From TrEMBL:
<dbReference type="Pfam" id="PF08857">
    <property type="entry name" value="ParBc_2"/>
</dbReference>
<feature type="signal peptide">
    <location>
        <begin position="1"/>
        <end position="20"/>
    </location>
</feature>
<dbReference type="InterPro" id="IPR036086">
    <property type="entry name" value="ParB/Sulfiredoxin_sf"/>
</dbReference>
<feature type="region of interest" description="Disordered">
    <location>
        <begin position="311"/>
        <end position="352"/>
    </location>
</feature>
<keyword id="KW-0732">Signal</keyword>
<protein>
    <submittedName>
        <fullName>ParB/Srx family N-terminal domain-containing protein</fullName>
    </submittedName>
</protein>
<dbReference type="InterPro" id="IPR014956">
    <property type="entry name" value="ParBc_2"/>
</dbReference>
Length: 352
């Protein structure tokens, strides 16, 4: 009888352990993740240098958007507005956490001097959450730690950030800026219409950007236009862009004297400041002006001079997003002029 009781107790312990393990797994999936802080551990990439969703959940953390420090000076507010509408819609449907927990919406961060968390990508998503129609306490994102450089002096830290391609220290004209010129919070990021125009050109195959195998797509996934570009002009036909901050580099070209697009100045004058909620009238005006510029922008990016100019800008950041060990920089130049399609026009209150 005693042996039977011991056997039953053992079986109960095994069942309890399995249940606890399952509950722990469900908790991870449901987003029970600690707040970012000094105890947050550096995430480990796999053999392909990719960060898996499992690793992000295992070592990742959740952080208020207002606590993130940008590593670039601007975003394209039109793109951010579309994402913000989507975030608001997901929140209204009760799906915000599931939406933000998707692999491609975890934001990469670096812990710098003083324990400050620096956002190194997904600035548009952070701006979208910041401006979404949700409660302030819900304006958070999930993050994974790339590096812990908190022990470095400020000057050494920024030198390492630059060398590791973790910061875009240029203004919208492509001119170099010091780290002190960067905004200290997401809510102070400026609008760069050229960044939006560059994204539209990319989506219409004006230049081709292909993700390496196993990489998580952008925070809204790969658009139909992006898939079409990859099918039409993939690596077998054109070298896909692997340079860092390639959208900014092409945007800077479109605003340069080399591109010689007179209508660009009018579009730049239509920049929209960050407001909560964003100013729909300003965004609509900017959309109309950029739409008029788009055909000329497509023409300009196809020129050989465009390739040379952007390669020069990209060389400041070096290559590294192609195959493991590759040192060849490609800017994804497409010499064939493409006929642009109508870009999506978002209303802040609607999901697009």
């Amino acid at each position: 009888m005693r042996a039977i009781n011991l056997l039953l107790a053992g079986l109960l312990m095994l069942a309890w352990g399995a249940t606890a393990s399952a509950e722990k797994s469900r908790d991870a999936v449901n987003g029970v993740i600690p707040a970012c802080g000094w105890t947050t551990k550096v995430a480990r990439p796999n053999d392909d240098l990719m960060y898996t969703l499992q690793e992000k959940k295992r070592r990742g953390c959740i952080i208020e958007v207002k606590a993130l420090h940008p590593t670039q000076s601007a975003v394209g507010m039109l793109a951010a507005a579309c994402k913000s509408a989507r975030v608001s819609s997901e929140a209204a449907a009760g799906n915000l956490q599931d939406y933000l927990l998707k692999d491609n919406r975890w934001v990469p961060v670096v812990r710098g001097p003083g324990g400050v968390f620096y956002l190194t990508d997904h600035h548009h998503l952070a701006v979208a959450v910041w401006n979404a129609t949700i409660e302030d306490q819900d304006k958070k994102v999930y993050a994974y730690l790339l590096d812990d450089w908190s022990a470095l002096k400020e000057s050494v830290f920024w030198e390492r950030m630059k060398n590791a391609h973790r910061a875009w220290l240029f203004n919208r004209a492509g001119q170099s800026i010091p780290p002190s010129a960067l905004p200290n919070e997401v809510g102070k990021l400026q609008d760069d219409p050229l960044r939006t125009l560059s994204a539209w050109v990319r989506e219409n195959c004006g230049y081709v950007k292909c993700d390496p195998p196993g990489a998580a797509k952008s925070d809204d996934g790969q658009s139909c236009a992006d898939r079409s570009c990859e099918e039409k002009f993939g690596s077998k036909k054109l070298p896909c862009a692997n340079a860092y901050f390639i959208e900014f580099a092409w945007g800077a070209f479109l605003g340069s004297d080399e591109a010689a697009i007179p209508e660009v100045k009018a579009a730049l004058d239509a920049a929209c400041s960050q407001q909560n909620p964003m100013n729909q009238q300003c965004l609509d005006t900017q959309y109309d002006k950029l739409l008029k510029v788009l055909p000329a922008a497509m023409q300009a990016t196809a020129a050989l001079e465009a390739k040379t100019w952007v390669e020069g800008k990209a060389s400041d950041q070096t290559a590294g997003k192609g195959k493991k060990g590759s040192t060849t920089t490609s800017v994804g130049h497409n010499p064939k002029v493409q006929q642009p399609l109508l870009p999506p026009k978002c209303s802040i209150g609607d999901a697009q």
